[in-house]
Amino acid sequence: MEDLNNLIYQYRKLFIIIMERVILKKGLNTIGDNLNIGELTTYTFRHTWATIAAHLDVPKEVIGKALGHGKKVVTDIYIDFDQTKIDKANRKVIDYVLKL
Predict the structure, then answer these.
(1) Do 63 and 75 contact (CB within 8 A), yes or no?
(2) How many CB atoms lie within 10 A of CB 97?
(3) What is the mean pLDDT of residues 45-74?
């Protein structure tokens, strides 16, 4: 009987997860339709969130944890790196060297 109760519990959890994803997908599609930008996916949403967070200098470790990643390499996939940061870093180094 305990095995049956455990199985029922697991199926209920799975059903809730599936329903949450269906509801989220419908919500994202509604937002995309209302903004006339087409289909939004959870991947698009996560990718955009991670890129904005990185642009706001949120540490990569925090972004990774927020996305549920265990490794930084996975987080790197989600972040579109802002190349202007390299330009700014180079400018700082050049300015520093020229002052020596």
Answers:
(1) yes
(2) 8
(3) 84
Tell me the three state secondary structure of residue 68: coil
Picking from 78, 74, 28, the residue whose alpha carbon sits closest to that of residue 52 is 78
| 3-class secondary-structure state, position 90 | helix
Report CA torsion sign: 15, 17, 20, 24. negative
Distance CA 37, CA 28 (A): 11
Q: What is the pTM of this model?
A: 0.52
Question: By 3-state DSSP, what share of the chain in percent is helix, strand and coil, each rounded to 5?
Answer: 75, 0, 25
Per-residue DSSP letter, 81: -
Tell me: pLDDT of 89 over 80: no
Structure token digits, residue 52: 């904005």
Among residues 11, 46, 10, which one has the least CA distance to residue 28?
46
